[in-house]
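Reagents: none. Just compute today. DUF4142 domain-containing protein.
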Amino acid sequence: MIDTTIRKANLSLIAVAAVLALSACHRGGNTPTGSTAADTPSSTSTTTASADTAGTASSPTNPSAASPSTAPDMGNAANTSGTGSTAPLQPADQQFVTEAAAGGMFEVEIGKLAAEKATDPGVKNFAQMLVDDHSAANDKLRQIATGHNVALPASLPDDKKKEIDQLAKLSGANFDKQFIKMVGVKDHHHDIAAFEKASSSAQSPDVKDFATSALPTLKKHLAAAEKLPAKG
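Predicted 3D structure written out:
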């Protein structure tokens, strides 16, 4: 009886061992590739990271960073090309510029004298108009002369100084009359003829433009002088 019980117990132990062995086999069949599967994500990550790194390395350089060293600065180039002296004036143009500068200086100086000495209010106003308008014209003329390297007269010619000295000796109505006759009418007739010639025949565009733009003012001066009572 005891032997039978022992045999049953042994059979039970054998059965349990068999079950455990089968379970172990089933679990072992899933595990061989487990470590490889666990390594796969990290391998994939590494591959992806490498691809990202390669993409970054092969991406084009930022254009804005490259432009200063490769693209020319057109603004500076244009400014550089504009430096230096311009073409010299033709003899006729240079003569006109020089004579116009001397005439403009004369108009300003004698206009200042008349603005102080004239007795007729209309003559005083006319004299001040000459000072203002010819001062502005002289500034433009100096710019043109500088651009062409032309040296303008530093002082009035001797004949113009003599005219101012002669007029300065007069006074009263006699001064007013002589000023209008000599400066307002005679000189402006001469100036208008010279400026009309330059406006049509000057070779330099800036000289021609200056003469053309000054003509209306000179004609205005002549018309104003001819209307003044002191003229007669």
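Residues 91-231 form a domain with the Ferritin fold (CATH 1.20.1260.10).
Action item: order primers for follow-up constructs.
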